[in-house]
Amino acid sequence: MLLDIDKETVLLQRMTVGQLREKYEEVWGEPTNTRNKQWLVKRIVWKMQANIEGDISQRARRRAVDLARGTDMRTTAPKATKPAIKPAGDTVTGFVQPEDDSRLPPPKSELERVYKGQKIVVLVLENGFEYEGVIYKTLSAVAKKITGQHCNGYHFFNLNKKGGKR
C-alpha cells in the first residue's frame, strides 16, 4: 500500500486538535499531552510513513548507538580559567592618554554636512563634540542623534584616515 503524504497531510491539517490527538493515539498506540497542531500532523504523517515503508534498519540503529557511546558528552560547564598573575614589578597603574585621531580636525574646528536638506554643524572640542548646545563624547553619538540610528561618525561626516574629506 502506497501512502500519498501530501494528501494525508492536507486531510490531517483540516482536522481539529482533538481529532488529531485521537489519530495520534490510534497511530502511535499511546496518548499525547500536546496541543500543538503542526507537531501532531508531522508526527502522525511520519509514523504512518514509517509503518508502511519501514523504519530505519537495525544496522543503522546499531551504528547510531555506537556513535553515541563513543562521544564525549559534557555534563558540566567548563571551569573558568584564572588569568595569569603578573609579577608586581611589571604592573603599571595610571591614566593612559589615547592618541589623537588623525581623522579629526583640531579642536575649535567645525564639521559640516548636509543631511536631508539641512546643514549640520558640529564643533570639535578638546574632549568631545558639540551639536545644538549638547556635548557628545563621540562623533558616532552625534551621528546617532542626527539620524536616529547607529552609524559610524567618521563615515557620516565623510572623514578619511588623513583628516580630510574622502
Summary, kept brief:
The chain is an alpha+beta fold and 166 residues long.
General description of the model:
The protein is an alpha+beta fold. It is built from six helices and four strands, in the order ααααββββαα. It has helices at 5-13, 17-28, 37-53, 58-70, 139-147, 153-156; strands at residues 110-115, 118-125, 128-131, 134-136. Helix 2 (17-28) runs parallel beside helix 3. The mean pLDDT is 82. The longest helix has 17 residues, at 37-53. Among the domains are: 5-53; 110-156, no CATH class. A four-stranded antiparallel sheet has the order 1-2-3-4, covered by helices on one side. Helices cover 39% and strands 13% of the residues. The N and C termini lie far apart (72 Å).
Query: Which class best fits the helix and strand makeup?
Result: alpha+beta
Widest sheet, order of strands: 1-2-3-4
Number of strands: 4
Distance between the termini: 72 Å
Q: Roughly how many Å is the radius of gyration?
A: 33 Å
Shape: elongated
Low-confidence stretches: none
Order of helices and strands: HHHHEEEEHH
Query: How many H/I helices?
Result: 6
Largest sheet: 4 strands, antiparallel
Instruction: Determine the mean pLDDT.
Output: 82
Indicate the proportion of strand residues.
5-15%
Oligomerization state of this entry?
single chain
Helix percent band: 25-40%
